[in-house]
Design a protein that fits this description.
heterodimer, A: 392 residues, alpha/beta, Aspartate Aminotransferase, domain 1, Aspartate Aminotransferase, domain 2, 2 domains, globular, B: 140 residues, alpha+beta, Sufe protein. Chain: A, three-stranded antiparallel sheet, 40% helix, binds FE2/S2 (inorganic) cluster
């Protein structure tokens, strides 16, 4: 296989932008020092850290840079938001609302919280993955302290009506946390307009480095720290700061601000060409997720009568990297919990293919997938006992 | 994740398809992963003259189906009934732990096909032959 690999799995792991790496290098090769030290070496690190914080704050329109807390990544941010708010606000109530399409780090943290007397109520989503606002209104009570709903779903690409959700949540004086991992840097996100209290921000999802992430915490929100120590990050996240990481994430945020709209219009055109090409040329293929409220880089399609892993392996043999769902779900045997929560039958959900585009994809990549995929699906269908005679 | 043998059988599966006038058909599935396997056998003079499969499932499910058809072809009914999931996995140079149940599905599919044949012929199956995968739990 002499061809280059066609990479369409940016939802599982993304490439760090070379410009980000260039920005980080001096902070690994030349500069060092503890940002808490009063000498010049320390102060240089401190000011780089604060500049990065300001860049991330600008990207999501936070009022103050101090509302951004750097963490080790989105999983830690989700943990900090959920555990931090729950434990700190126990006196106000014990109910937390969520959906079943949240990321595994949210779902498992919620499960953990139930051991401490917190009660988690799951609000249903419709067949597109959109939160049912009426059901949310009915589920929220005076005991609700926190609602956590992802800004946009990483797997099926559906973008929630966060503004409307926020109004419902705030009418009961609960906090709204949103895991915006899949959204920040891809679509405009504005914490003030959207009315969120806490927001998880990923670095690598927006072509920044791994090992760093952030949590936006609106000023005045009551949160207990997860990691106790020297009181860095406003006392919320102790440990000597990861300055090179923060600088990289800050640079990624700057690039996102400058390039988001052009990236999005280019990628959404490629996405649409991919989806339309597949639905047109492969019988019994269906779009997963919302047709219009959709992340610009997400194409998730399911094929009846075939199974996802064999699709992924077959495409890999053609030099195409895609996913059959969330990267985390490949550790279990069950199909995507997101698709199941959307009411898609088990056997149908099994045949899903997630193609997530990124900044480094080219038009030819779409051509290549459209060229190869029909043959692969056909081959697997010929092998499948589920395929009706008229299809194979 | 998979051995070269597995990938070889996935890439070029042997004996795919149906046997139109099969003497026995085994249809098995794993309720957790949802994968399905159908094994067809043709018997002549107490030997498996032909074995074919159709599978809806993961890479390992396809590779184990392919492998079991190879292992079973030409064997007597008695010999074929003795093929275990371990035999299938070993013949493929091993499977990842989470995928061991796929080899069980293949071994069960063959057993089910033979039992179906025996039933049709009114032959009493030997003691202790069980189809496990239908009720198998895939706890990890
Ligand atoms: S994952 Fe269940 S048969 Fe392969």
């Amino acid at each position: 296989m002499s061809q280059d690999i066609v990479y369409m799995d940016y939802a599982s792991a993304s490439k760090t932008d070379p410009r980000v790496i260039d920005a980080m290098l001096p902070y690994m090769k030349e500069y060092f020092g503890n940002p808490s030290s009063p000498h010049t070496s320390g102060l240089r690190m401190k000011s780089a850290l604060e500049e990065a914080r300001a860049s991330v704050a600008r990207l999501v329109n936070a009022e103050k840079p101090t509302e951004i807390v750097f963490t080790s990544g989105a999983t830690e941010s989700n943990n900090m938001a959920l555990r931090g708010v729950a434990f700190r606000n126990k006196d106000r109530g014990n109910q937390i609302l969520a959906t079943r399409i949240e990321h595994i780090s949210v779902l498992n943290t919620l499960k953990y919280l139930t051991k401490f007397g917190f009660e988690v109520t799951y609000v249903p989503v419709d067949s597109y993955g959109l939160v049912d606002l009426e059901a949310l209104k009915n589920a929220i009570t005076d005991r609700t302290i926190l609602v956590t709903i992802g800004y946009a779903n990483n797997e099926v690409g559906t973008i929630q009506q966060i503004r409307e959700i926020s109004e419902i949540v705030h009418s009961k004086n609960a906090y709204l946390h949103t895991d915006a991992t899949a959204a920040v840097g891809k679509i405009p996100v504005d914490v003030l307009k959207d009315g969120v209290d806490l927001m998880t921000i990923s670095s690598w999802d927006m072509y920044g480095p791994y090992g760093i992430g952030a949590l936006y915490i609106k000023k005045g929100t009551r949160v207990e720290p997860l990691i106790i120590g020297g009181g860095q990050e406003g006392g919320l996240r102790s440990g000597t700061e990861n300055v090179p990481g923060a600088v990289g994430m800050g640079k990624a945020a700057e690039l996102a601000m400058a390039e988001m709209s052009s990236d999005a219009s280019r990628l959404s055109k490629m996405r649409d060409r991919l989806i339309e090409g597949i639905l047109k040329n492969i019988p019994y293929s269906f779009l997963n997720g919302h047709p219009t409220r959709r992340l610009p880089h997400n194409a998730n399609v399911r094929f009846s009568f075939v199974e996802g892993e064999s699709l992924v392996l077959s495409l890999d043999m053609e030099g195409i990297a895609v996913s059959s769902g969330s990267a985390c779900s490949s550790k279990t045997l069950e199909p995507s919990h997101v698709l199941i929560a959307m009411g898609i039958p088990h056997v149908e959900a099994q045949g899903s293919l997630l193609m997530s585009l990124g900044r480094f994809n080219k038009e030819e990549d779409v051509d290549r997938v459209l060229e190869v995929l029909p043959r692969i699906v056909k081959g697997l269908r010929e092998m499948s006992p589920l395929t009706p005679k008229e299809v194979s | 994740m998979y051995s070269q043998k597995v990938m070889d059988h996935f890439r070029n599966p042997r004996n795919v398809g149906e046997i139109k006038d099969a003497d026995g058909i085994g249809k098995v599935g794993n309720p957790v992963c949802g994968d399905l396997m159908w094994i067809y056998i043709k018997v002549k003079d107490n030997r498996l003259e032909d074995v074919k499969f159709k599978t809806f499932g993961c890479g390992a499910a396809i590779a184990t189906s392919s492998m079991i058809t190879e292992l079973a072809k030409g064997k007597t009914i008695e010999e074929a009934l003795k093929i275990t999931r371990q035999d299938v996995a070993d013949a493929l140079d091993g499977l990842p732990p989470i995928k061991m149940h796929c080899s069980n599905l293949a071994a069960d599919g063959l057993k089910a096909a033979i039992l179906d044949y025996m039933k049709k012929k009114g032959i009493k199956p030997p003691e202790g032959i069980k189809i496990e995968s239908e009720t198998e739990k895939c706890d990890l």
